[in-house]
Amino acid sequence: MNDIDYGTPAVVADREVTLNIDGVAVSVPAGTTVMRAAVQAGVMIPKLCATDSLEPFGSCRLCLVEIEGRRGYPSSCTTPAEAGMKVRTQSPKLADLRRNVMELYISDHPLDCLTCAANGNCELQTMAGTVGLREVRYGMAGANHFTDVKKDESNPYFTYDPGKCIVCNRCVRACEETQGTFALTISGRGFESRVSAGQSEDFMDSECVSCGACVNACPTATLMEKTVIAKGQAEHSVTTTCAYCGVGCGFKAEMQGSEVVRMVPWKDGRANEGHACVKGRFAWGYATHADRITKPMIRAKISDPWREVSWEEAIAHAAGEFRRIQDKHGRNSIGALVSSRCTNEEDYLVQKLVRAAFGNNNVDTCARVCHSPTGYGLKQTLGESAGTQTFKSVEKADVIMVVGANPTDGHPVFASRMKRRLRAGAKLIVLDPREIDLVKSPHIRADHHLKLRPGTNVAVLTALAHVIVTEGLVNERFIAERCEAQAFADWREFVARPANSPEALEADSGVPAAEVRAAARLYATGGNAAIYYGLGVTEHSQGSTAVIAIANLAMATGNVGREGVGVNPLRGQNNVQGSCDMGSFPHELPGYRHVSDTITRELFEHAWNVSIQPEPGLRIPNMFEAALDGSFRALYCQGEDPVQSDPNTQHVQSALAAMECVVVQDLFLNETAKFAHVFLPGASFLEKDGTFTNAERRISRVRKVMAPLSGKADWEVTMALSNALGYPMHYEHPSQIMDEIARLTPTFAGVSFDKIDRLGSLQWPCNDETPEGTPTMHVDSFVRGKGRFLITQYVPTDEKVTRKFPLLLTTGRVLSQYNVGAQTRRTENVRFYDEDRLEIHPHDAEERGISNGDWVGIQSRAGDTVLRATVTERVQPGVVYTTFHFPESGANVITTDNSDWATNCPEYKVTAVELVHVDQPSEWQLRNAHEDKVQRRLLAGATAK
Amino acid sequence: MNIPNLIKMANQIGAFFEAMPNHEQAVKDIASHIQRSWDPRMRAALLRHIGDAGDAELSPMVREAFVLVKKAG
After folding, report:
1. Which tens digits make up the pLDDT trace of A578-589?
2. ipTM reported for the complex surpasses 0.85
3. Residue A275 maps to a domain
4. Please, which pLDDT band fits residue A250 given cuts at 50, 70 and 90?
5. With contacts defined as CB-CB under 8 Å, which chain B residues touch A903?
6. Is the separation of the CB atoms in A225 and A158 below 8 Å?
7. Rg of the Cα trace of chain A?
8. Of A542, A569, A596, which residue constitutes the final position of a domain?
9. How close is the nearest chain A Cα to the Cα of B10, in Å?
């Protein structure tokens, strides 16, 4: 079940060397270690401190070899292979040396193998067997590591038992090299040497971020998952894809029957290369949480108790209601909302259901409220609604610009890769109102932190362009060859205007002009420059304009079309890219083709045997407006929770309450389900087959490891609903859905489950020209032909500070919680973060008499709520910050209806607020808590029967 | 549909295109953006409002654009 461990990392080199190991000739890239070359030759050299995810360390002295013509016994993990080298890995002398080394290790290790959690999967045990250790002459008396030691069980997911530590340093090195947190060290000397977290603290009290890299690296039971301690070792594993953020890490679900024992990051997963974070690695227990609803339920009114019914009755009821409402209010009176948490196949089926069975285009995805401006901005400028690179590309970046993203919290596994590159010398520019961890973390300091005021991205990005243009830093050759001449000339004239200079915009942005100029010079002249951006760019009234401004910068400096550069949107959820690709928008069919395009429409009409409306449907916020207007009466909501995640909660609640039929398909009774008339139980990512597409356009397999708790996977539910509506859908497996997607979508033409299984994953476009996918886009030309510059006039948001609302609230997320928290709140991750807090600068706090931990009333033009304060200089004066992971916080009660001009993506990142010291929850919170109790009672009646 | 919201959305679209150097193209782009991204009931509601109450709340370019939107139907 374990992957082959090559002992040291793979090396990429232009030339190969051939050496001879135990009589076997083997060719390896120059720079490869003898240990790795030996494994490639089929020879396993004993080892303990070496593992192929970490640089060689050479401490355990077990991997000694003999090399012809050399004296002594060099360690194979630190000796580079050389041409003509003759290596012997076995000899009587080597056997003696290794046995002696093992004897010393074992003399200081408890011999409780039979009851040890690592039994059957312990490298120390295996090595003792490999070297033929038969006796330990030194006895167990005297000083050692394992008596009188206290096990650290503070972390909810793993234990640290110093008594079992062999001080191989693998965990320390993993924390440094793989994760980049530097939370661990070896303290003490001799028998006192210990792995120490932080300043010799418990793991929970240290800087440890619980990524699990140390646990993964540990060769013994020193660092061990609590689930393995509780259940024992797994007996088989299934490779699948994480259902959390847009990094899309590959995991091996290690199983006992249909029960997950642990999730281990997949070494060959190209998105993560064997690394993980606290969510994907450990926070999967929600899948079998007691709150899961596994039976369909219906009710006539949202004030009625739920009634458990059969699948047949629930589906027939939902279909009947949809048809009744359409008959009465017209075919455009219903629609659907799909989730970026669902698979490509599920998203595809729902939009097909809407277009073919509902007969309209009222389908939208939660990508609406996060990255819809990315789709628009990149399509307009570069020609494709997707990022340009692989994650691995960052390893070749010389300058990294992070705009409105917080990778260490939102995309932690990619952040580790980025930090590795930064530690190796790449320069860092951060544009963010807040001091994110990347600005100042171990061995990393941002060269420029442009601490802009919320809402001024476009001003700062355009000012950067001004410097590049007016200081002669444009890559003229790239522009001449690759971009539209007139559009560039117009843009150049625009950005060069004095009004767009850093000096002119300083008053708006709050960023010193000199800092903007220095950052622009670095970005334009520092070598390969890559931009990574997140929701801090898109979730603004000028979100699309900011995306365009980013693309303009990349084109102006020629930083597109090769490794190490590019425009990289860091997608929030696991399948944001995929849900957009699958035609989940009301104006686009799969592959980003507009519904008004007759040729495309006819293609789908022919395949689906229906006629498709040529006009766009309603976007999510438009659906809510139309519901209040009476022209939109029913919603099929799959895997999404707009009541918690969308802005202006009270507005969303009113809209849902106005609908005649809300069908929610989800794992839990989420906030939206409290307004539902039909509840269809959903399936977690462990219970179904399909694919997710991550932020680098990588399509990876989601594989079923257990049967759906409700009896149906989500795609089967959509199919049943469609059949009940009279539009036949018959798929036996999601692979058939992907085959249909491939037939109808040119960028997916070469995609199939078989190919993904064979290659591990695929980056679209994947077709006849690029049968194995496209790692880097726009290499020789842009997808649209010539790159198109667009003018990015800064238009200040309407959400302005006033005397009544003098502060700007901006929102974000934390490492341990995910989105609305429906999954992570139902895991031990609540021990890391159990409530949304309001960050406030000491100056603003003092002015208002607010101290750390105080309850603070936050009032905006949309509503008010109460949170506890964290007083911190991480935010700048005039700016406050919170997260939205807990429904009772009501963070979105205060965010407004303001939205991006092009896509209606909400402006979560800018809300004018005032704060007051309070001593009780807000009216909304009190009302919401009461309604929550009522709804839980209504649910209890159904599930008790 | 909420008319003040529609007016705000239309003016926001207008504000992006107003900076473009070619006025005629910018007006077409505003109209096209609305045509391609607004559900017909949203366009119809704002056109009705313009018919009833005039277009004074719209920016000048958006007014021009809505002439094209109306023509397109």
Report:
1. 999 999 999 999
2. yes
3. no
4. very high
5. 37
6. yes
7. 29
8. A569
9. 8
